[in-house]
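Hello forum,

I keep getting stuck at the same step: I have a sequence, I want structure tokens, and every attempt I make locally crashes halfway through. Rather than fight my setup again tonight, could one of you with a working pipeline run this one for me? It's a single chain of 144 residues.
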Amino acid sequence: MDPEHTGVESAALDAYSRIVTGVATSLLPSVAALSVRTSRGAGAGSAVTFTDDGFLLTNAHVVSGAAGGAASFADGTETTYQVGEFYAPEMEGGLSPFDPDLGLTWPMETTEISEKDAAWAPLSEAIEEIKVRMAVPVLEEVSA
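Reply #2:
Ran it on my machine without issues. Output:
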């Protein structure tokens, strides 16, 4: 037996690993590897396509200082992208973590949630506002 983990801990880690693997497998087609160039040099990050018409969502630090770059997907598709908006606290947004359309399965019951997180709308109610705020779709498909 692993001296660092009891049977209960190992079972919990196995369950967590199955959840992470399942989420990664279901999301893989929509996850993009980003190449980013700024005046500070080149970098990389990831994004997820969250609309059928190609809007990418990433963290602000990934594209900070960049106007655009290239995105590559697991199926070999490559495309260029433009940054639609940079982070500003007054523009902060979010989605309900309990939106059934997101398909998230939480590994445990949620007993507390912040007021801020509880106030976020589901994707179906927020998508048009998100598109307006992003303002720039994926530019073109380079290869498939």
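The chain has one domain: 7-143. If your local run keeps crashing, start a new thread with the error log.
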